[in-house]
Amino acid sequence: MAKPTRRQDLIKAIKKGKLSQSFLRSLTEDEKIFVELYREFPTAGLDRMVDAPAALVKRACEIPVSVPVHQRLRSLVANLVSDSWATPQVAGVRGTTEIDHRSLRFGAEAAIVMLRAEKQRGEWHFLVELSETDLPQSQWCLKVGSRTVERTETGLFEWSSKRPPKSVDLVCDDGSTIQLPEISWKRTTK
Amino acid sequence: MEPIDHGVVASISNMSRTDEQIWKDACKGDHAAWKELVDRYQSLVYTVALRNGLSMADASDCFQHTWLALWQSRKRLKEPERLSAWLVTTARRESIRMSRQSRRMVSDECLSAEPDRSATPDIEFEQLEQQSKLQTGLDQMGERCRKLLNLMFFAPEEHSYEQIAAKSGIAFNSLGPIRRRCLEQLKEILGKLGFSHVRGKV
Asked: Cβ of A27 under 8 Å from any chain B Cβ?
């Protein structure tokens, strides 16, 4: 059997704590560098990190051009940033297609609006979360068509309906609005 | 004897830009700099989301959220030199929030069968961040050095010298001098990237 490298021995010794002078003297120059690097980056032998799908990376790269900076705060039009229905699924992996779930994310200046939908027993349940970092700390409500949804104690907007909404607006008591773009709920199966 | 990439060290100074330098350029509207940041840390952000137990669809969502939040924080980010830590924290928070939100949507009987998906220890995320920095350093090396160091020191499974020689295409007798040279280069790159404080000898 081929002799393994001394990596595991070195890692074991480092993890034990203080390295004896005789141990350090026994190391070759490159083993000393490895010990030095491993003390700061103790990652040898760990599973590799997972690369994000190329389509996701591309979309993230485009964020600076897809989220325009609006000068006026009072009326923002949000842009769709991500849509789970548009996320490429891995072929052959079972359980990755979630027809009855959908996650949408919108960006408008410093605000992020997340909409999560789930269909259960023929009815859609919705959760909306607004993260507003630079927006006024005021009272927001949600307008779904003619319906008004107030924020719950948990800070979320929740409602159910037979049909998913085409338009959703967030309205602040100081008159500011965040309008989400029209949402299509027709899913094209590939 | 195998030739050594003498050109690598000379080009390190041009290639190794710190996070802070890239971030400043990205904030000035340099799209290429923003792309460089995304490329540098895309696997870190995505892995954090997956390690927190998110599905692939939710991990994608979390990924987009994290980058969007970074872009929207460009006027407020106080320590750009700690950008990777900021990304890990933001992706973690978002993963936990999404897990909780997701559990609110499922019925009670399903909930009881759900494992606790937010219990990944801090140390694992610290290691991920370190791994990402190390990977950034390795990515800036020549292909041969990168391959050799990955096989020798950073691959999940340990290889014998014979296997490393075969896989890297380097003659067995040249492994010693080349790996030493490569490790020294890696140390220098990590130092230039601002990731390493160890520059002297052990």
From this structure: yes
Residue B159 counted as domain residue: yes
A99 interfacial to chain B (CB closer than 8 Å): no
Sheet arrangement for strand A75-77: A75-77, A177-179, A168-172, A140-144, A147-150
Question: With contacts defined as CB-CB under 8 Å, which chain B residues touch A5?
Answer: 152, 158-161, 164
Overall number of domains in chain B: 2
Q: Are residues B45 and B101 in the same domain?
A: yes
Contacts of B190 in chain A (CB under 8 A): 37, 41
Residue partners of A187: CB distance under 8 A and separation at least 6: A85, A99
User: What's the Cα-to-Cα distance from B87 to each of B39, B48, B52, rounded to whole Å?
Assistant: 13, 9, 14
Concatenating the DSSP letter of every residue in B171-200 gives -GGGHHHHHHHHHHHHHHHHHHTT-----S
Residue A12 to residue A94: CA distance in whole angstroms: 39
- B54: nearest CA in chain A? A96
Q: Do B61 and A109 touch (CB under 8 A)?
A: no
The interface predicted TM-score (ipTM) is 0.78
Asked if B131's CB is within 8 angstroms of A30's CB, the reply is: no
The confidence score (pLDDT) of residue A189 equals 53
Please answer whether residues B44 and B88 qualify as being in contact, where contact means their C-beta atoms are separated by less than 8 angstroms: yes
- Domain match, B155 and B92 both: no
Is there a domain that residue B155 lies in? yes
- Domain of residue B28: give its range: 17-120
Q: Give mean pLDDT, residues A155-175.
A: 85
Residue B1 pLDDT grade (very low, low, confident, very high; cuts 50, 70, 90):
very low
Q: Which among A121, A103, A102, A123 is positioned nearest to A113, based on CA atoms?
A: A103
Domains along chain A with CATH numbers: 1-49 (no CATH), 67-179 (2.60.40)
Tokens coding A174: 């100081």
Do the beta carbons of residue A127 and residue B105 sit within 8 Å? Answer: yes
- Whether B84 and B129 have beta carbons less than 8 Å apart is answered as yes
Entry pTM: 0.65
Residues of A in contact with B56 (CB under 8 A): 87, 89-90, 93, 96
